Amino acid sequence: MIASFKKLMIGLTASLLLLTIASCNSGNKSSAADDNASANTVKIGVLHSLSGTMAISEVSLRDAVQMAVDEINASGGVLGKKIEPVIVDPASDWDLFAEKSKELLTDKKVAAVFGCWTSVSRKSVLPVFEENNGLLFYPVQYEGEESSRNVVYSGATPNQQLIPAADYLMSAEGGNYKRFYLLGTDYVFPRTANKILKAYLLSKGIAKEDIIEEYTPFHHQDYQTIVSKIKKFAVGGKACVLSTINGDSNIPFYKEFANQGLTAATCPIMAFSVAEDELRAMDTEFLVGHLAAWNYFQSNDSPENKKFVAHFKAYCQKKNLPGGAERVTDDPICWAYTDVYLWAKAAEKAGSFDVDKVRSALLGLSFDAPAGTVKMDDKINHLAKSAMIGEIKPDGQFNVIWKSQGLITPQPFFTLDATAKN
Amino acid sequence: MNTGIRLILCLLLSFLWLGTAYASDDKVGSCMQQVLYPQNDEMRAQALSALASLKPSSSVLRFLEAVNSNSLYLYKDKAVTLGSKKRNGAEDVYLIYQLYPEQMVLLDADAQPLMLPVTALQQVQISRPHRLLLAPLSSWIGIFSMDPQKRTMAYGQVRAVSDTMLINALPLALENETDASALRAGKEAWYALRLNNAASAQTAKLLIDSLETNGGDNATARLRAYAKKAGVPQEAAVYASAKADKLDNHYAWLQRVQHLFSGISLGSILILVSLGLAIVYGLAGIINMAHGEFLMIGAYATYCTEMLFSNVLHVQNSNWFFITALPVSFIAAGLMGLFLEWLIIRRLYARPLESLLATWGVSLVLIQTARTIFGDLTAVKLPDMLAGGWQVSPHLVLPYNRIFIILLTIVVVVALYGMLFRTRIGMQIRAVTQNRSMSACLGIDTRRVDAFTFFIGAGLAGLAGCAMTLIGNVVPDMGQTYIVDSFLVVVTGGVGKLIGTITAGLGIGIFSKVLEALFQAVYGKVLILLLIMIYMQFKPRGLFPDKGRIAEE
Amino acid sequence: MPDKSSKLVTLLFVLFFAIVLPAGHLMGIVSINTISLWGRYCCFAIAALGIDLIWGYTGIMSMCQAFFFCLGGYCMGMHLLLKATALQGQELPDFMVWNNFSSLPAFWQPFHGFVPAVVLALLVPAVIAFVIGFFVFRSRIKGVYMAIITQAFALGMYLLFLRNETKLGGTNGLTNFKAVLGFDLSSSNTKLALYFATVAMLCISYILCRKMMASKFGKVLQAIRDSEPRVGYTAYRVLNYKLAVFVVAAVLAGLAGMLYVPQTGIITPGRMSVTSSVEMLMWVALGGRGKLKGAIIGALLVNCLYSLCTSLFPEGWLFVLGVLYILTVLYFDKGFTGLFDKFAALLRSRRKAVVEGVPSPHAENTRVSHPAMARSSEGN
Questions:
Q1: What residue numbers bound the domain in which B419 lies?
Q2: Which of B372, C18, C99, C368 shows the smallest number of beta carbons within 10 Å?
Q3: How would residue B104 be classed by pLDDT, with cut points 50, 70 and 90?
Q4: Is B344 part of a structural domain of the chain?
Q5: Does A107 sit within 8 Å of C33, measured CB to CB?
Q6: Which residue of A has its CA nearest to C305?
Q7: Is the pTM of this model over 0.90?
Q8: Residue B454 falls within a domain, yes or no?
C-alpha cells in the first residue's frame, strides 16, 4: 500500500515538473518550426507593459504597433510575408523586461522587437539585445548617453527636444524668460534632462540662482508645497517651469498649479512628458496656454498625419478598445507607428529580415512619417527630425506655435560645443 | 453682474477718451486696415512697424497686444479680440471686444454683452516673423491684454526703467484698469518705476510706503532691487530693506498657515481612506489589501456618474453630478464590498492572515477588471463650485476642493461616531469588536454585523475615492498609492481605534507637510517613515492601545 | 522525521533540477534561456525558505524580505559592475560618469574583490536585520505592527534607493554586467555553472534549514509561534530566538539576491518595492506555510506561472493569478503541499488501507499553525 502511495507521489511530482518544462518549451519548438523558410509569416515582438504602473502610457503604443502591422499586412506584408506580432506583458517589472526580451529573441525568434518606455526598461533589455544581436525599436524621447547598435532610437535625443524648448522660452517670441524652475520625477530622464538644461542655460548667461531643480517620487500626488515654492519663485518675474513630471503625477500638479492661482500667463509650464494621450482624460481647463515640446503633435498639418490620425481613431473604435474614437495620437504613438514602417522599409530595402542587413539598410533611410519627413542618421540608429512647441488648447490638443527650420541632427551624447555648431 | 456693468461702463468711458486720440490720427486707421487686409506681406510688416513706433495710445497698444498674443479675429468684417471667458454648456464662450474701427464691447440684440465661441470668429493669421516685429514692445505689451490675469502678469514683469514708451504707456493702461488684482500689480509697477526715478529721499520714502500698503506680489522683490541699486540715497535704501523685511516676515507667516492647511488637508485624506480600513480590521481582523480598490471603485463610480450626467442626461451644471456621485460612490463601493464579503471574506473570519492573501488576489482581479472596462486614462472634471480657491489674502489661497475634503472628513467622522455610539447596530459592532463569542452568546447576529461593517468600510473607501477625483486622476491602480499610507495610519493610531486613526492621520499629514517644506519631498517621506518607526519603539501598540485584559494574549 | 516517500519526492526534485534539466539542455531540448529562468526561480526559492523560517515557523510577518534580497543583489551587482567597468578600461561606472562623480564613492571600494563582495552580500543584510530586529523585538512589536513597521522600513529604503544621491544608480539600478570571476556572463557555460551553483545552494540551504528546524532551536521557534508568552514564562529569551531567525532569513534572502543578479543581468529598486515583499509572502503562502518544501514549490510554481501567463495571456494574467490566490486561500488552506496531503488522504481512504502507526507523508507539520497575525484581543 505504501508503495502504491509512493508511486503516486512520484508520478505526480514527475508529471507536474514535466508539464511545467514542456509548457516552457512549447513556444520554443513551435517557433523553430515557424522559422522555416517556407513559412509565410515573420514574427515581431511587442514588449510594452499592459499592466502595472507603466500600462497607462504603454498600452497606446501596443495599439499603434498593432495598427501599423495590420496596415502593412493589408497591403501585402513585408517581402511577401505577413507580420505576426508576438505580444507579451512585461508588467512594468524591469526584471521581467529582460526575461521577456530573452524569450522573444531566443525562443520566439522574432525579427525585431518594438517596445519599452522607461529608460530603466531599455537598460534592462539592452544587454540581452547586444548578446543575441537583436533589434529593438525604442519610440520614446530619452536622456541620451547611450547609442547601441542594437537599438533604433526613434524618440528625441536631448538636443531634439530640450534645447529647442529652452531656446524658445529665452527668445523674444517665447517670452524672454530668464528664470527657470526645473521640476521632475526622480529618475534618469528628468535627472539627465535637467543636467543638460542647466548646463545649457548657464552657458546662455542665465544666473545660477535663477535655476532651481526639484524632484518628486513616482506617483507623487500632493503638490501643495512645491507649487507654493514655485509661486514664491514666480514672484520675481520672468519665471517658467520646465517640467519632466511623469505619468499620473501630472494631473495633481496642474490642478494644484491652477488652484493656487498660477496661470500659463504668470508662469508657463513647458512639459517634456505631457502629450495628447495624457491630456485625453484631463480636465484641460487649467492647462490651456501651457506648453509642451515634442517632435510630433496630433494637430500637425500634413496629409500623412491626417490619414494616420483618422486611421488610429477608426482602429480603436473597430477593435473596441477603451476610449474608442475618442482616442488621440501623440509623439510616442507616432514613433511607435513609424518604427514598424521604418523596419518594414529597411527589410524591403535589404531584401532580408536578417538583423545586420536590416540595420545597415536603416542607416540614411528617409520616411514620410506623420510627423513630417524624417531621416535616419548615416552613422547611428537615431532619427533626424524637426522639433515643435505646442500650446495646449481647451480641447486637449496642441496649437503648434513653433517648428524648427529643417531636421535636427540627433546627438545622443550631448555636448555644448556640438549644440552650438548645430 | 455688478462687475459686468462696471466693466462695460469703464470700457465705454475709455472708448470716449480713446475716440479723441484715434480721430486725431488718421494714419492709425490706415495702418490697422493694412494689418487686417494686407496688400502684401511687405505692406503688413511696414504697417506693424509704423504702429509700433507711434506715440502710444490705448487703442493702438490694445490692437498690437492682440497681434502679439495671436488673438486677433475678424467678426462681421470688424477686428475683434477675446475678452473674459464663460462656460456655456459644452463650449466656452468669450466676451467679444472690438478693436477696429471703433473700440468697444460688442452687444447683442438685448443690449447685453455678446458672448461667442471662438469657432464663430475668423482668426487673422499673422506669421511669426511679423509678430517678431513687435519684439521691442513684447516685454510689456501684455498690460493691454483683455485678460486680467495676463495683465497682472505683464505688470509684474515691468522692469525696464529707461523705456520711455513704457513710461508713457503704463499710466494709459492703469487709467482703464478694472480688475482688482491687475490694478494692484499695475500700481506696484507704477510706484516702482517712479521710485527708481525718485529725486529725493523724501519722495522715495513716500513711494516705498505706497508700495507696502499696496501689497502687491512683487513688492519685496522690487524694494530689495531698489535698496541694492547704485546711487540710491542711503536713508531710502535702509528704509526700503526694512520694509522688505517686514513684508517678508508677513509672507513667512502666511506660508506657515499654508503649510498647516496643506498638512490638515493631507491628513484628512489619510483619515478618509483609513477609516474604513480601521473599522474592518478592528471588527473582523481582516487585513484588507483590496481596500485601495474600493477607493478605485468609488472613483470610477464618480466617473460613471459624470458620464451619465453629461452624455445621457445632458445636465450642463457640473455641480449636480458631483453631489449625486457622493452617495453613488459610497453605495457602489459598499455593495461591491458586501458582495465580496459574501463571496470570499466571510469564509476567512477565523483566519485573519489568509485574508491578506485572498484580498490581495481580489485586488489584482479588480484592478485588471477596471483596466479592461475603462482603459488606463480617465479623470473627472472638477465641479464648478469647487474650482478655484478662497483668497484669504493676496498671498494665501486655500483651494475649495481641499476645503471640501476637510469638511467631508469632518462630516464622515461625526456620522461614523454617531453610528457607532448612538445606534443599536453601532453598539453591536462595538460589542463584536470587543468580544465576538460573548456577543454571539448574547444573541447578536455576528454574521449580519460583519456584513454591515464591511459594507460601511468599503463604502467609506468609495467615498474617499470620490473625494480623490477632486485632486488626482482616476486610474485602475490608484488604490495602491494609498494603501501603504493608510495601513501606516491605522497601525500608528492603534489597530481598531477610530480616535487613533484620526489623530495619526492628522499627525502624519501635518508632519509630512512640515518635513516636505524643510527637505525635498522624497526625504520628507523617508523621514516620516523613520519617525513612525522610532515612535513605535515607545508605543509598540499604537497611540491608543487596548487596555486591560483584552490587551493580553 | 521525514518518511521514505517524502524523501523520494525530494530526491526526485533534486535529480530533476540537477540532472534532467541540464541533460535536456545538452541534448538540445531545453534552451539555455529556460535553464537560466529556472536558475532564477531557484534563487526565489532560497529567499522563500528564509520567509518560511520566519513566517511559517516563527509566526513573524516580515514585509521587508525583498529589501534584504536586494541588498545581496546590490552587493553582487556593485562587484560585477566594477569588474565590467575595469574590463572596458574605464575608471568609473557609466552612471557615475553621467552624474559628474569625480571618484568612486568610498563604500564602493570593498567591492573590487569577489570574496569581499560575497561576504558583504551576506553580512550587510545580516547586520541590518540584526539592528532592525533588535529594536523591533526589544520593544515587543508583534503581529500586524511588525508587518507594517517592516513594510514602512522597506518603503523608506525603496525611496532612498530610487534617489541618485544614494550613488547606487537610482531607478535604473545597476546593469550592464560582463563577467563573473573572469567568465563571460553571456556564454551558456557560465549560465549553466551559475544554475548549478544556485541549485546547489538551494539544496544546502534546504538541508540546513531542515536541520535547524528539527533541532531544539527550531522547536523553540515553533513554540514562540504558538504561544510566545508561555515560551517566555519557561525562561527562554524570546528576543534572542526571534532575532536569530530574523537574521538567518535575511542572510538567506541576501544569498538569493546575490545569486539572482548575475543570472538576471540587472538589479533595480523595483525589486524591493512593497509589492515585491508581499509577492514573496504569496509564494510561501501558496506553497504551504510552515513547510520548507512548500516554500520551495510555491516560489518555483508562482514564478513559473507568472512567466507563462504574462506571455500566454498578456491581457488577462492578473485574473489568472488573482483567482488562483483566492481559490488557494479559500479551498487549499495549506497551499499546494496541503493539496498533496489531501490527495494522499483521499487515495488511502478509497483503498481502505490505513495502516496504524504509519505516519502520513508530511506528518512533521500537519498541525494547523496559528495565524501569526491574529489580533491579540481575539481568541483563536
A1: 264-479
A2: C368
A3: confident
A4: yes
A5: yes
A6: A20
A7: no
A8: yes
